[in-house]
Amino acid sequence: MNQLRLLNVSKTYKNGVKALDNVSIEINSGMFGLLGPNGAGKSTLMRTIATLQQPDSGEIYLDDIDILNQKMELRKVLGYLPQSFGVYPKLSAEKLLHYFAELKGLSNKAERKQIVDYALEVTNLYDVKNKHVAGYSGGMKQRFGIAQLLLNNPKLIIVDEPTAGLDPAERHRFLNVLREIGTNHIVILSTHIVDDVKELCTDMAILNGGKLLCHKKPIDAVLDL
Ligand code: ADP
Ligand code: ADP
């Protein structure tokens, strides 16, 4: 059972915007939804947990890793899908995943094939593995992003507003992929779409103006909105 713990995390940007105001929370294995309107501080929180930026104060732990002081330890077990589509070279999904797996140090070809096939299957891209990722639709690219971050079997997976701009069918396919991987990882989904959280998450919190407003089961929170 993995656990992520945040203790009194605060961040004020140089322009005076208080993006995170004393945020404390415990997140366990499964699908966690971080809901909040634009400007709430979601991306700031996601980037902070992903060690891409430093808070002004507070502590963050993933199990026994002190994230703010052991960045490299965290990065080895992190999968992070940021908020924009990637630009990809003209290579098939399968070839690109093999390449990324090699970059991550998987030099044994049989082991690499096993993890690449797993990533393609979980993300429902196996049937289109020979197509160029550059020609994928937005939703397929998002699922490819998930396939890519599964290659090092991360403990913690962070996806920032992944369904923005997806059509309903693709959104559904994407949420199903998250549901599948949520069974054996901590997955944090940041979104402003209440239905994403309602459909998927076992636990949730609402962020507004940098403050964590509530932290409870999705259905109760949705009734409160
Ligand atoms: P910090 O206080 O973390 O050093 P900065 O004020 O130096 O942050 O800004 C870091 C980057 O974020 C800059 O490239 C800046 O252009 C960009 N930025 C500034 N204001 C905003 C904003 N309101 N939303 C998103 N990005 C912003
Ligand atoms: P969300 O992801 O929920 O939309 P953000 O974390 O992007 O929220 O932004 C929270 C607040 O901090 C907003 O008011 C935003 O304009 C501001 N902000 C975000 N990044 C920066 C930055 N680098 N510099 C200054 N202000 C920022």
General description of the model:
It comes from Psychroflexus lacisalsi. The structure is a single chain. The protein starts with a strand and ends with a helix. It is built from 8 helices and 10 strands. Strands 6-7-8-3-9-10 form a 6-stranded mixed sheet, sandwiched between helices. The protein has a 4-stranded antiparallel sheet with strand order 2-1-4-5. 35% of the residues lie in helices and 28% in strands. α4 (109-122) crosses α5 (138-149). β4 (57-62) and β5 (65-66) form a beta hairpin. It has 225 residues and is an alpha/beta fold.
Secondary structure blueprint with pairings:
Layout: E1 3-12, E2 18-28, E3 30-35, H1 42-49, E4 57-62, E5 65-66, H2 71-76, E6 78-81, H3 93-103, H4 109-122, H5 138-149, E7 156-160, H6 168-181, E8 186-191, H7 194-200, E9 203-208, E10 211-216, H8 218-224
Parallel strand pairs: 3-8, 3-9, 6-7, 7-8
Antiparallel strand pairs: 1-2, 1-4, 4-5, 9-10
Summary?
With 225 residues, the protein is an alpha/beta fold.
Jot down its keywords.
4-stranded antiparallel beta sheet; binds adenosine-5'-diphosphate; 225 residues; 8 helices; single chain; alpha/beta; 6-stranded mixed beta sheet
